[in-house]
Write a structure and sequence with these properties.
The complex is a heterotrimer of chains A (about 270), B (about 260) and C (about 150). In chain A, about 40% of the residues lie in helices and about 25% in strands. Chain A is of the alpha/beta class and about 270 residues long. Chain A is globular and about 75 Å long. Chain B has about 260 residues and is mostly helical.
Chain lengths: ~270, ~260, ~150
């Protein structure tokens, strides 16, 4: 971890959805200028965590500090100001379907600044060049492939040079080539723009290749954290099962069920 | 039995909470953070989508309804030798009832369902969420322009509907069935009152516009973000807003013309 | 589609709606005639106003000169008091004029007929706020039929 304070600091977070506990007393730190990954089996609410950081959901207990400010307790206008410093890449890209790629990238700039159109044009083309889509600026989102849509959304999310970019499953459903492109983009954008990145994913190999620090979340809490090297040496069998992708282990292959033998016996009766 | 009562209770609560959410959405859309002037193109765009694109169906239905009114009215009035009352019959039916109501029903089917589907889809594809994360309030950016476009468009459409309907009545009554043209207009002028009939019709139309647009936007904004959820929300928009329009029409008619 | 084109189409739409409103106002409802003109008020008491309504016309020889502005009941002698709004261009009715509530056609709407009276030096002209004393009430069909049957019985 860096010497200065982490950009995002989650302290003793508890979050429930209805009666179901999603997180129980969980703490995490995201260091400035680093790529931090959150990994874990699907269905444990990794996306929920990003929404908590973005202030779209409110935790039941605990604090979520962003640059020292407690996100859940901010007033609406302060929250909106804080959000201008963060951005999120949604799993689907979430491009505005009624606008061209160019207008999509220009959208946050136009909404939050009063810059003249020529400067906006320069900024947009710069961001599109960074993701390699400068030639696709006049296409509509429906004309893009999945990988291109995600890259266009990435260009949009860095349009205002945020401090924090959150990636929600950036590798899910991508072919190997566009996966490689996105892996490279996350790393190079992080280093070139001095961003802080949070990557939520369950693609072990990709995450281990780019992350500076990794949290493995399962069963409502952090079960292991460290640099990718430290994690590979981690003693927890749960972490090892996840990293190696073994079918059975501490996370059982079978969903909770009555004894198989008993159920078979019932049929014969 | 106990289950039934429970069910009724739960449904009632659901209706109230839906109403509450719709009202909160409306307040958020209208009184949230102030919008700069640059929102103007958004309003123009929505006026186009909601108003101009509904124009054709409104003109065509207005024309036919006016023609049918004249045809039906003529056969009845001719029995009493009161053909010259055809003008007032067509004009008053359109201005007081059919104009606002049929426009609202057509609007619910044409523009309302489209609004619900559009917003529901934006929700399902996380566009609203991502807008929120970009520190842009979707209520101000997406819902407010559509709401105002709906509330402004529908009375205008109803006016056009009325005018086209009366001209359609003229077409059938005067040009086809041979009612005296001068009598058609003069009897109308003698019996139609601008405040009582024309303006009350416009007021009705404003109320319906408010109801239909609010229901359409709320159903979209509150839709379950799956394809089934959106299709259910679209159906609900048409059904709920049609029923609401007919119910409110009775109340408004009783207040305006009943006394 | 460009904003410019959208603006044009929306402008066309709004113009169409305004044209429709004008058609409805002028050709259908005939508003504006007497609507914005200057008026003055006259008062009259009737014993029975029948089916007279607010905004019913006031006619002289079939010409509309004004409308009923309000109808109230005098709280002391329980007589209906009708306030008339007469167009200022007709400002020379003598105080001997009479009012009667008439029906247009057999089943038509009721209106107020104004019968101008004679003029000489002792008779002044009606002005704003004056009361017309000589009034004839509405003919109520039921009373008429009742009277007819009663007379036949005799």
């Amino acid at each position: 971890m860096g010497s200065d304070k982490p950009l995002v600091d989650i302290q003793n977070l508890t979050f429930r959805r209805g009666d179901r506990v999603i997180y129980q007393d969980m703490s995490m730190q995201f260091a400035r200028g680093k790529v931090t990954a959150i990994m874990g089996p699907s269905g444990i609410g990794k996306t929920t965590l990003l929404r908590l950081i973005g202030g779209q959901l409110k935790p039941d207990e605990g604090r979520i500090l962003f640059e020292g400010e407690d996100i859940p307790r901010l007033s609406r206008s302060k929250l909106y100001r804080a959000r201008q410093k963060m951005s999120m890449l949604f799993q689907s890209g979430a491009l505005f379907s009624e606008m061209s790629v160019y207008d999509n990238v220009a959208f946050p700039i136009r909404e939050h600044t009063k810059l003249p159109e020529e400067i906006i044009r320069l900024m947009v083309l710069m961001k599109l060049e960074a993701v390699g889509l400068r030639g696709a600026r006049d296409l509509m989102p429906s004309e893009l492939s999945g990988g291109m849509a995600r890259r266009a959304a990435l260009a949009r999310s860095i349009a205002l040079d945020p401090e924090l970019v959150m990636y929600d499953e950036p590798f899910a459903g991508q072919d190997p080539i566009s996966m490689g492109v996105i892996v490279r983009l996350i790393r190079s954008l992080n280093d070139a723009l001095g961003l802080t990145s949070i990557v939520v994913s369950h693609d072990v190999d990709e995450v281990m290749s780019i992350a500076d620090y990794v949290y493995v979340v399962a069963d409502k809490r952090v079960i292991g954290h460290g640099t990718p090297e430290q994690l590979r040496q981690h003693e927890s069998p749960l972490v090892q099962q996840f990293l190696r992708g073994e079918a059975d282990g501490p996370v059982p292959f079978h969903f909770r069920a009555a004894n198989y033998g008993d159920e078979l016996m019932e049929l014969t009766r | 039995m106990l289950n039934k009562i429970q069910q009724i209770g739960a449904n009632t609560l659901a209706i109230f909470s839906g109403l509450g959410r719709a009202t909160m959405m409306l307040f958020g859309a209208l009184f949230g953070r102030p919008r700069p002037i640059k929102a103007w193109p958004l309003y123009i765009k929505q006026l186009y989508v909601v108003g101009v694109q509904s124009l054709l169906i409104i003109v065509v239905s207005g024309l036919f309804i006016g023609m049918v009114l004249a045809l039906q009215g003529y056969t009845v009035l001719a029995k009493f030798g009161a053909e010259q009352m055809l003008g007032p019959l067509v004009a008053l039916s359109l201005l007081r009832e059919l104009g606002p109501v049929v426009t609202a029903l057509l609007f619910a089917g044409r523009a309302g369902s489209a609004l619900t589907a559009e917003i529901g889809l934006m929700k399902a594809t996380e566009q609203l969420s991502s807008m929120e994360m970009m520190a842009v309030d979707p209520l101000r950016r997406v819902v407010a322009p559509r709401f105002w476009a709906g509330v402004i468009s529908m009375p205008l459409l109803a006016l056009i509907f009325n005018a086209v309907g009366i001209l359609g009545g003229h077409l059938v009554g005067v040009d086809w069935l041979g009612v005296d043209g001068g009598g058609y207009w003069s009897a109308m002028q003698a019996n139609v009152d601008f405040q009582q009939d024309v303006l009350n019709g416009v007021i009705k139309s404003f109320v319906f516009a408010f109801i239909v647009t609010l229901i359409a936007l709320h159903k979209g904004y509150d839709a379950i973000p799956t394809s089934e959820g959106i299709s259910a929300a679209t159906t609900q928009t048409v059904v709920t807003s049609s029923l609401a329009v007919l119910g409110f029409d009775f109340v408004l008619t009783a207040v305006m013309f009943g006394g | 589609m460009t904003t410019r084109k959208l603006e044009l189409l929306v402008g066309f739409f709004v113009t169409l709606a305004i044209a429709a409103l004008l058609l409805l106002a002028l050709k259908v409802a005939n508003a504006g005639v007497g609507g914005s003109d200057q008026t003055y008020h006259l008062q009259a008491k009737f014993s029975n106003i029948g089916g007279l309504k607010v905004r019913s016309p006031v006619k002289v020889g079939g010409v509309v000169v004004g409308r009923v502005a309000s109808i109230k009941l005098d709280p002391e002698n329980f007589q209906p008091v009708v306030m008339l709004e007469i167009n200022s261009s007709y400002n020379n009715f003598p105080e001997t004029s009479t009012l009667s509530i008439l029906t247009s056609g057999l089943l038509g709407e009721q209106y107020i007929g104004l019968q101008p009276g004679f003029v000489d030096e002792s008779v002044s002209i009606l002005k704003d706020g004056d009361t017309i004393e000589d009034t004839k009430s509405a003919i109520v069909l039921e009373e008429l039929i009742g009277q007819f049957l009663f007379n036949r019985g005799n």
